Amino acid sequence: MDREPLDRPVTLAVVEDTPVVLEGIRSWVAADPGRRVEIVASGNTVDSVLGGEGAHADVILLDLELDGVNSLPRIPELVAAGRRVVVYSVHEDDATVMAVLRAGAATFIAKTETREHCVDTIVAVGRDRPYVPPVMAGALVAADGQTSRPMLSAREREALLLWFQGMNKQSVALRMGISEATVKQYIERARVKYASTGRAAPTKTTLLARAIQDGLITADDIIEYQSLAADHHTRD
Amino acid sequence: MSASETSVRRNYSLGARRAAVSIVAAWHLGFDLVGTVGTWESYRFPWLAGLAWVLYAAIGVVAGVALLRERPLGAGVWPLAVVTLVVSAMVMAACEPGDVVNAADWGWGSVGWLAMILFWPRPTWLRDLSGFLLANVVVTLAGLASAGALDARSLSKFLVVSVGAILLQAGASAGGHALDLAARWAVENSNRTAGAEAARKAADQVHADRLARYAEVRAAVAPVLTLLAEGADPADPDVRHESAVGAARLRRLIAETDDAPDPLLHTLRACAFDVERRGVVVLFLTAGTVPPLPLEVRRALVEAPIEGMARARSQARVTLVATPREVIVSVLTDAPSLPSADGSRAANVATRVEAENGGTQLWIESRWTAP
């Protein structure tokens, strides 16, 4: 799945206030056959986690609601400090998903997402690769259909839609008559198109750099994507 | 009251008023004028009789025009009525004492006609006219007394003419008003008929709706009820599945008419909830806001997905993606198969049912695209 060799596990700091959810994440990470993720810190506030062992974690997994308080406002400062933030929440409506992405988070995981998606997402984000969990794919399709200037192509849209509907990438490829690699490309490119947050963030820059390396987009595309995304941001 | 009903009443009412004004005009020209001119020589003061005739005619024109044009005389009615009584007294005064209540004294018998059209449009016309006629009787009796003609012959003549004139004048007025009343009854009657007709049509519509709902419910549960009636074992998983499908269809019929802010989501959720209660793990994901859709479109959109959900063995992933121009409902489930859907169809709704994951799963997608 990944082209570069896995030299060390992605380190993860979990900010979560519900012990049972934390246990669930621990067991999912432990059940990953490749042992690709290592949880280095956990706690129920952003400051307690990042002030201790989590100071240098590759990825921060942030619950959107901590003790009843929305943690969305904390995202921009974390992103500005160069942290890769993965947000997860029970609130999986498209408005919440898009607000999280606009705040600069690398990606969004719904709590209804399955184990593979959760671990795969953390690994991808740890390596600055675009990864779109199915729920986020649905939000992207809905958000794109609401704008007057859609950014997604019809094929990208179709791939995201089938991915959201619960098919694996092999099935999506079969149904669309394309290769699995192309499906992956369509889905990841959609993420890159919505990568801009309207501010320069180190994670976004590395995401785009990776996207160019992987051939998802060309350097010429970036200006267009950024301007469209920035325009989208100011319209909201 | 409708426009045609109003015109029916107006026509009746105008006809009666024209008749009343015609009677007064004919009487004043045919009887009063002939009486005045024919006995001109016998008057004590002929000019007074002539003046009375002209005054009568003037009041007649004012009252007649007002009645035909439906202009109210308002406060002017009573002064005019008093002047009319004065006309009666003037004619008496113009006659020789021996001629009071004779042919030359036309006034006392005629003023009642004028009073009839004066009081015609008033709701209290009967009371007002009776009061006037009584006053005229008093004025005439006073005239007879002052002329010293209270003898049996004059009194009997006075009584006969008075009764005749009062009967004619009050009768004509009552007849005219009866015509008005008849028109009102006719209108009320036609209103009642129209109301009954509307009620009948509404009842027919309700009945037709009921039949349609009955047919829908029947189509939803008849197969499984037939199975059970034929002795199928309720413990048989297939029978239980058929029952679950019937239950889901009923659920949809109930939920789709609920007054919910988002009826499509409401219907899908209600069905998902029922399926979950059977122990099926339902993952329900939505993205976007559903635009307002007509009932037949919503029906066509949810029918196949709900059938799929109802047939799920252990799990179903239900998704809804909505944009202002497109709504896509999909179910990915381990249901074995779906009988070919021949149910709800709607323009711009396309449904696909396909095997997925090497036949282990069923993928159902209904898609509405804005025209």
From TrEMBL, chain B:
Superkingdom, taxonomy of origin: Bacteria
Keyword Transmembrane helix: yes
TM spans (from-to): 20-40, 46-68, 75-94, 100-120, 132-150
Record keywords: Membrane, Transmembrane, Transmembrane helix
Protein name per the record: Uncharacterized protein
Organism: Herbidospora solisilvae
